[in-house]
Amino acid sequence: MIVTYEALRNDPEVREMIAAADAQMKAIGYTEHGMRHAGIIAQNAGMILERLGRFSEREVELGKIAGLLHDIGNLVSRTNHANTSALLAYDLLRERGMPIREVTQVVAAIGSHDEEEHVEATSEIGAAVVIGDKADVARERVRNPLVAAWDIHDRINYAATETQLEVTLEPCTVSLDLTIDTEIGSVMEYFEIFLSRMVTSRKAARLLGCDFHLIINEVTLL
To answer: Which pTM value belongs to this model?
Structure first.
């Protein structure tokens, strides 16, 4: 059976799992991890694979599916959530009739997306999910209404007024272009909390045969 991204995005069980995961993250003070985040990572991963031009439509679709489901394990716990997400996704996708050869690709991509768990992408689909995930820096993710209570993650996400993820060929480059309001958060603070994510993104880009560039306020930093 062909399981599609759109079918999963509109699946009540999937939406409930993502909502529960986001509620867990909200309870421990994290930024938004709901349908908005899941949808953006799905689109980012699909865009990267599509623009590279060497992946089939189905591989692009699998990248989007992995992006959609990459954080559902947060409904259990933030700790080891990549592994938990992969296990939950395995059962969910098999129940919907996805062939095992596709399921293994999706769960491997999900299980290797989080740099805090000291893993790296082991497939090109996984690499696209990693980069797509780390690129979601945006003020829309901040939900704490009390500015005085913001931590550094809230402040830097709110300071990111524009975010653009781009893929160019010849030479192959994946670029994350950010505009940061330095009256709210500094570029140094960005590196303080996101350096490991950028290193992970660079490794993922190399797996795709590309360089990774980080551009902040029109200055190339990586």
So the answer is: 0.95
